[in-house]
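Cross-posting from the modeling subforum.

Setting up a comparison between two proteins and wanted a second pair of eyes on the formatting. Protein 1 (sequence, then structure tokens):
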Amino acid sequence: MSIITQQNNEQVQEARQWVDPLIAEVSKVVIGQKKLVHRLLTGLLCNGHVLLEGVPGLAKTLTVRTLASAIRTGFQRLQFTPDLLPADLTGTLIYNPRDGEFSTKLGPIFSNLVLADEINRAPAKVQSALLEAMQERQVTIGDKTYPLPDPFLVLATQNPIEQEGTYQLPEAQLDRFMLKVHVGYPTREEERMILDAMATSSPQLNVEAIISPDDIIHARSVVNSIYVDDRVKDYIVSIVWATRDPAACKLKLDGLIRYGASPRATIYLTLAAKAQAFIAGRGYVTPQDVKSIGLDVLRHRIGVTYEAEAESVTTESIVEQIFAALPVP
């Protein structure tokens, strides 16, 4: 092991001391959903927004609320509805007739962790206002621009099965989400544990705050310093390129991909792989780190054609074929 890698390992071990206690604290309330908790941690460590998709009742909102309670930081839950206005999100100017001047009232988006519940229910104007906040980490009210606090993270949820009263998220906004996570059902054993813990009119949902925003910001600096070998970097680039030119990788996907992943996918895949190494306590990235997080980074960045939809070919199956075809360094 090189000296640089050994130093990285020591830094990671020191900086990640809060990771296991935080996961344990969240697990007091959220039973199962370990993958979901890890993906939310990945978003925190990489300063990347996370979109959660799953049927109702899978503890998406509960997990985000519990994670926010375990961090000594600001938290706002925004229920997105079709009649929501951009000012309800970002804030507005209020006229004061006494002195004839306008004062600014900042909206609920000025917080550290923002839960955008059922994000696909909001109309285009609200999505546009949220897009500026997600990408630029600032909000424009009137003729002034206000920076958002650091850390700032949007954790959004959407229901994939209900279409009435919903708006499809534009591709530009989907691309701003670092991860799109599909939340699945718990196992039979986990569901029995959920029954024992939650089948009461007053379930215990209290958790203690484990870390502060400063701990997260420090951990991000350590994540940025995690070592990525040149062969792993080439592997990441090959994965993203395969979504644009599958024939070059000898993949039989002709006519199935409408557009491939952008360079933002390359950046996010590298950052997310570093976060996986950090959570595992390593100061270097392995190809398995890339494979473990690749589907969540890429599934919403590939557009499939009508022919693919007719043949029931999904973005998930395309990503799985790419990982199976490319040689692992």
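Protein 2 (same layout):
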Amino acid sequence: MSINVEQAIIHSISQDGEGQLSCRLRPQPLLNSQAVEAMLEELHQTYTTKAGKGFGHFGINGEDGEANTKFEEALTTYRSGELGFVEFSGIAGKLLQEELAKYDFSTGGFLLLSCYTYMTSDYLFVSLLNAKSSMTVLDDMELSQNTHLDLNNVQLAARIDLTEWQADPESKKYISFVRGRAGRKVADFFLDFMGCVEGVNTKAQNKSLMNAVEDFVGNSELTKDERQQARERVFDYCTERCDEGASIQIKDLADELADQGMDSFYDFAQGGNYELEEEFPGDKPTLRQLKKFSGTGGGVTLSFDGQHLGERVIYDPVSDTIIIKGVPANLKDQLDRRLKGE
């Protein structure tokens, strides 16, 4: 299902020769509807499938404990119809310029704002895009250097679920954002200009879910194969929700397990000490542990499917050893070559 773009605009934040940042505001929305829709469709898909996103809400931030409410106030005024999209985006551009001016590591970029609808929700997508140079061969075989937006490497981006925000202002997860490669700190200034603070610890919720599933199947009378099938069903459900950009819902997950003959997971999960929310965003890397075991340390990396534990892979916690039966062919070949050489 494609998105329906309502408004989109790009402003430029650049640095002059003296290191001062300035914001060049576009006076009207982007007009090339075909190009805009193609760009936003690509960004929507890239953003939705990005793993490890953080989730938050408008609120208190900064060391002084004060709230940066200007962005939220402008967005509220825009959504009420008292402010036009171009005017709202201009306020956002100036706010980002002021926030960037506090730091000495940024040279600016292109601020993209777009309102669009996907399925039953309205969204505001906010991103600071970088430009990238490339070489093109012209018809006369001459080289030409072009500059284009780097859509494949989006590191500073956030998406506000406008429908959830207005329907449930107390929600802690209507704003999602891309975590920087070095963690939350990289994107601090980007979230600060919007007045966004992290509200849901996604990894902790997914870890609690994984623990609840392990305890649930461990306390059941299922066979080993049935337990692994249950883990894989949970993983498949959660992966589908992640790919759709939707939250994991404990009640729906319980219904999925009930279809497999495993009733009462909902009561089990809510009755334990797992502190699970009714719904929360999925985190694939954490949930992948339902299907695979993996670890790295001391120069050794090991990974194997959970179904092999106790069969091809034998773990003895007393002697702190793992025995692998049926060494992978490519690894066996490397080992045999090394032994022959020695």
